[in-house]
Design a protein that fits this description.
single chain, mainly alpha, about 45% helix, elongated
């Protein structure tokens, strides 16, 4: 009995650690080093950000937490879910989460200035599904 409790406790702790470490990114650049990011493409510039930081098991993958940021569902989920404000891009929920201005910043490990600049530029450019 004691062995099964120890095994169960160890398994739960392992799962918690895996989930906590899965929502993470590698690179943080200061805002002043971002510069002009140029024309943004949803499929070439934004989806790779989601794949690197958001679209993984336990996070914003298909069937996970909303919004669904998987390549096949991200655009529809963001637009139809009200996460994008084309009129005032800085007020977009997606951008505010990524900057750490919402209750639960995303990704969990904190803001990434390069990713934030690209997402904001994409929204400012009309949040196209290109």
């Amino acid at each position: 009995m004691k062995n099964s409790k120890t095994l169960l406790t160890g398994g739960l702790l392992s799962m918690i650690l895996i989930i906590m470490n899965s929502c993470y990114y590698d690179e943080v650049l200061p805002v002043e080093s971002v510069g002009d990011v140029g024309e943004m493409s949803f499929s070439n510039d934004i989806i790779p950000i989601f794949n690197a930081s958001c679209n993984m098991s336990g996070c914003h993958n298909k069937g996970g937490q909303k919004p669904n940021l998987s390549p096949e569902g991200a655009y529809t989920s963001l637009i139809n879910g009200g996460y994008i404000d084309k009129t005032t891009p800085e007020n977009s929920s997606l951008y505010k989460w990524m900057k750490g201005e919402e209750a639960q910043p995303m990704p969990l490990s904190g803001p990434n200035a390069t990713y934030n600049a690209k997402v904001l530029a994409w929204i400012e450019q009309g949040a196209l599904n290109n």
